[in-house]
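**User:** My hope is that you can spare some time for a protein that puzzles me. I have put the entry right below:
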Amino acid sequence: MWGAREVGFLRTMAGLVRLVTIAVRKERRIEVKTASSGFRIAFNHPRQLMPLLVVFQELLDPELAVLPRLLGPGRVAVDVGASIGTWTLFAAKTGAVVHACEPDFEHYSQLEENVLSNGFKSNVITHDCALGAYEGWSTAAGHHFGFSRNFRLSVGAPEANATRICMLDHFVRRVGITRIDVLKINTAGCEADVLVGGKELFRQEKVGVAMFLDGLTVRSLLDELKQFSYELGFYDGRKREFVSVDDSSNLDALRPGPMNRYVLLKHSGVSLHAQ
């Protein structure tokens, strides 16, 4: 109902019909053209199915609206857990350089295809690696979400089908980044591990705005980072402004809508208010 109010009842009903049709016909290949941005986002069914994208023909994350104010030519974004590239496309549209990290082979292949088909190959750099709390290699089945709990270091050559695990601090040095204007982390509940591997960047205040998929495991770490000149909160899409909270425990009570899935960490020198 919330989504229908956002995009309109008729478009929502048409999208529901499309979603049912995909399930009945067992379609293997899906492409959705977003209504506002005109992106063509392709993915495989059923593994990469994004039901809300099919139904609403749009990505309704309110945080996407603030990207043009934070990014642009000469600026840098890092997408950790890029999956098939939806967030990457919005960041790339601003003209910024986007480093998109996705270790899963199927997701990575689709990420590259979506970047190429939407004309962003010149300013998107894809990396088939996972980001976590350590440096090394992993063969665990769960590493496609951007990290592995069953992690082990490898001092020699990696095993076949092993995934490279990088610490965010080391990754930025390896690719030659001096500052991240926008950092997005969505690794299916493993955001805290990525943050552990990137804490030095926040200590040195080299991240402008960080967007974390919200979860209980990451909240306490975000509270700790407030000591490094950062504010914690979320982006209110209707008011078009950043709403600060004193403590992460207040996020649930103040969150304005069901699509506010990200908690934001904003450096005090960055403004998220509408111009």
About this structure: The chain has two domains: 1-60, 61-267. The longest strand covers residues 207-213. The longest helix spans residues 9-25. Residues 141-155 have pLDDT under 50 and may be disordered.
